[in-house]
Design a protein that fits this description.
Length: 140
Amino acid sequence: MAIERTFSILKPDATKRNLTGRINTCLEEAGLRIIAQKRIQMSTAQAEQFYGVHRERGFFHELVTFMTSGPVVVQVLEGEDAIAAYRNIMGATNPAQAAAGTIRAQFAESIEANSVHGSDSAENAATEIAYFFAGTEIVG
Ligand code: ADP
Ligand code: MG
Protein backbone atom coordinates (compact mmCIF):
# COMPACT_ATOMS: atom_id res chain seq x y z
CA MET A 1 0.00 0.00 0.00
CA ALA A 2 1.21 3.45 -0.87
CA ILE A 3 -0.15 6.96 -1.09
CA GLU A 4 -1.40 7.36 -4.66
CA ARG A 5 -3.20 9.96 -6.76
CA THR A 6 -6.10 9.17 -9.07
CA PHE A 7 -8.22 11.17 -11.48
CA SER A 8 -11.98 11.54 -10.98
CA ILE A 9 -14.87 13.09 -12.89
CA LEU A 10 -18.31 13.85 -11.48
CA LYS A 11 -20.26 13.39 -14.71
CA PRO A 12 -23.06 15.57 -16.19
CA ASP A 13 -25.84 13.45 -14.65
CA ALA A 14 -24.35 14.19 -11.21
CA THR A 15 -23.94 17.96 -11.71
CA LYS A 16 -27.43 18.15 -13.23
CA ARG A 17 -29.03 16.53 -10.16
CA ASN A 18 -26.95 18.67 -7.72
CA LEU A 19 -25.16 15.60 -6.34
CA THR A 20 -21.58 16.87 -6.25
CA GLY A 21 -21.57 17.51 -2.50
CA ARG A 22 -23.04 14.11 -1.64
CA ILE A 23 -20.53 12.34 -3.88
CA ASN A 24 -17.65 14.35 -2.41
CA THR A 25 -18.82 13.27 1.06
CA CYS A 26 -18.58 9.62 -0.10
CA LEU A 27 -15.02 10.25 -1.31
CA GLU A 28 -13.92 11.96 1.89
CA GLU A 29 -15.59 9.38 4.13
CA ALA A 30 -13.61 6.71 2.24
CA GLY A 31 -10.37 8.49 3.17
CA LEU A 32 -9.72 10.10 -0.21
CA ARG A 33 -8.59 13.74 -0.15
CA ILE A 34 -9.72 16.09 -2.94
CA ILE A 35 -6.39 17.81 -3.69
CA ALA A 36 -7.54 19.51 -6.91
CA GLN A 37 -11.02 20.24 -8.24
CA LYS A 38 -12.65 22.40 -10.92
CA ARG A 39 -15.97 22.58 -12.71
CA ILE A 40 -15.62 22.66 -16.49
CA GLN A 41 -17.63 22.25 -19.67
CA MET A 42 -15.80 19.54 -21.60
CA SER A 43 -15.40 20.15 -25.32
CA THR A 44 -16.16 17.46 -27.89
CA ALA A 45 -12.45 17.26 -28.78
CA GLN A 46 -11.49 16.85 -25.11
CA ALA A 47 -14.09 14.10 -24.54
CA GLU A 48 -13.09 12.27 -27.74
CA GLN A 49 -9.43 12.27 -26.73
CA PHE A 50 -10.15 11.40 -23.09
CA TYR A 51 -12.26 8.36 -24.09
CA GLY A 52 -10.11 7.56 -27.16
CA VAL A 53 -9.59 3.98 -25.99
CA HIS A 54 -13.34 3.42 -26.60
CA ARG A 55 -13.33 4.97 -30.10
CA GLU A 56 -14.32 1.69 -31.81
CA ARG A 57 -17.12 0.87 -29.35
CA GLY A 58 -20.74 1.25 -30.42
CA PHE A 59 -21.45 3.64 -27.55
CA PHE A 60 -18.54 6.04 -28.28
CA HIS A 61 -20.52 8.79 -29.98
CA GLU A 62 -23.29 8.71 -27.36
CA LEU A 63 -20.68 8.75 -24.60
CA VAL A 64 -19.01 11.86 -26.03
CA THR A 65 -22.42 13.53 -26.43
CA PHE A 66 -23.29 12.67 -22.83
CA MET A 67 -19.97 13.88 -21.39
CA THR A 68 -20.37 17.24 -23.17
CA SER A 69 -24.09 17.60 -22.33
CA GLY A 70 -23.45 19.67 -19.21
CA PRO A 71 -20.80 20.68 -16.71
CA VAL A 72 -18.52 18.13 -15.09
CA VAL A 73 -16.30 18.37 -12.02
CA VAL A 74 -12.77 17.08 -12.57
CA GLN A 75 -10.75 16.14 -9.52
CA VAL A 76 -7.48 14.72 -8.29
CA LEU A 77 -7.92 12.39 -5.31
CA GLU A 78 -5.10 11.32 -3.01
CA GLY A 79 -4.96 8.54 -0.43
CA GLU A 80 -3.78 5.04 0.47
CA ASP A 81 -4.09 2.86 -2.62
CA ALA A 82 -6.25 5.63 -4.11
CA ILE A 83 -6.69 4.09 -7.58
CA ALA A 84 -8.14 0.78 -6.35
CA ALA A 85 -9.88 2.43 -3.38
CA TYR A 86 -11.81 4.76 -5.67
CA ARG A 87 -12.68 1.99 -8.16
CA ASN A 88 -14.08 0.01 -5.18
CA ILE A 89 -16.33 2.78 -3.90
CA MET A 90 -17.43 3.73 -7.46
CA GLY A 91 -18.93 0.28 -8.07
CA ALA A 92 -19.42 -1.54 -11.39
CA THR A 93 -19.89 0.39 -14.64
CA ASN A 94 -23.49 -0.84 -14.89
CA PRO A 95 -25.33 0.37 -11.77
CA ALA A 96 -27.56 -2.71 -11.95
CA GLN A 97 -24.43 -4.74 -11.14
CA ALA A 98 -22.87 -2.30 -8.69
CA ALA A 99 -22.52 -3.47 -5.08
CA ALA A 100 -24.87 -1.92 -2.52
CA GLY A 101 -23.48 1.25 -0.97
CA THR A 102 -21.22 2.12 -3.90
CA ILE A 103 -21.54 5.55 -5.54
CA ARG A 104 -22.96 4.08 -8.74
CA ALA A 105 -25.44 1.86 -6.88
CA GLN A 106 -26.66 4.92 -4.97
CA PHE A 107 -26.64 7.57 -7.68
CA ALA A 108 -26.15 6.29 -11.26
CA GLU A 109 -29.05 6.56 -13.69
CA SER A 110 -27.81 4.05 -16.32
CA ILE A 111 -24.72 2.26 -17.65
CA GLU A 112 -23.87 5.48 -19.50
CA ALA A 113 -25.02 8.16 -17.04
CA ASN A 114 -23.18 6.49 -14.17
CA SER A 115 -22.24 9.61 -12.20
CA VAL A 116 -18.46 9.14 -11.84
CA HIS A 117 -15.24 8.30 -13.65
CA GLY A 118 -12.13 6.95 -11.92
CA SER A 119 -8.76 5.98 -13.41
CA ASP A 120 -8.19 2.24 -13.82
CA SER A 121 -4.36 2.11 -13.52
CA ALA A 122 -1.44 4.15 -12.22
CA GLU A 123 -0.34 4.91 -15.77
CA ASN A 124 -3.79 6.14 -16.82
CA ALA A 125 -4.15 8.14 -13.58
CA ALA A 126 -0.95 10.08 -14.36
CA THR A 127 -2.00 10.70 -17.98
CA GLU A 128 -5.54 11.75 -17.07
CA ILE A 129 -4.41 14.10 -14.25
CA ALA A 130 -1.93 15.80 -16.60
CA TYR A 131 -4.63 16.12 -19.27
CA PHE A 132 -6.83 18.31 -17.05
CA PHE A 133 -4.58 19.89 -14.41
CA ALA A 134 -1.43 21.97 -14.31
CA GLY A 135 0.93 21.00 -11.50
CA THR A 136 0.28 24.34 -9.78
CA GLU A 137 -3.46 23.51 -9.48
CA ILE A 138 -2.77 20.39 -7.41
CA VAL A 139 -2.23 21.10 -3.73
CA GLY A 140 -1.58 17.93 -1.76
P1 ADP B 1 -15.65 2.53 -16.26
O1 ADP B 1 -16.13 3.98 -16.26
O2 ADP B 1 -16.33 1.72 -15.20
O3 ADP B 1 -14.14 2.41 -16.24
P2 ADP B 1 -15.51 1.85 -19.11
O4 ADP B 1 -14.12 2.40 -19.09
O5 ADP B 1 -15.70 0.47 -19.63
O6 ADP B 1 -16.16 1.89 -17.64
O7 ADP B 1 -16.46 2.81 -19.95
C1 ADP B 1 -16.31 4.21 -19.89
C2 ADP B 1 -17.67 4.84 -19.78
O8 ADP B 1 -18.40 4.58 -21.00
C3 ADP B 1 -18.58 4.28 -18.69
O9 ADP B 1 -18.31 4.83 -17.42
C4 ADP B 1 -19.95 4.66 -19.20
O10 ADP B 1 -20.24 6.04 -18.98
C5 ADP B 1 -19.79 4.43 -20.71
N1 ADP B 1 -20.18 3.07 -21.09
C6 ADP B 1 -19.51 1.91 -20.86
N2 ADP B 1 -20.16 0.84 -21.36
C7 ADP B 1 -21.28 1.34 -21.97
C8 ADP B 1 -22.36 0.77 -22.69
N3 ADP B 1 -22.43 -0.56 -22.90
N4 ADP B 1 -23.33 1.60 -23.15
C9 ADP B 1 -23.27 2.93 -22.96
N5 ADP B 1 -22.27 3.55 -22.29
C10 ADP B 1 -21.29 2.78 -21.79
MG1 MG C 1 -12.75 3.05 -17.66
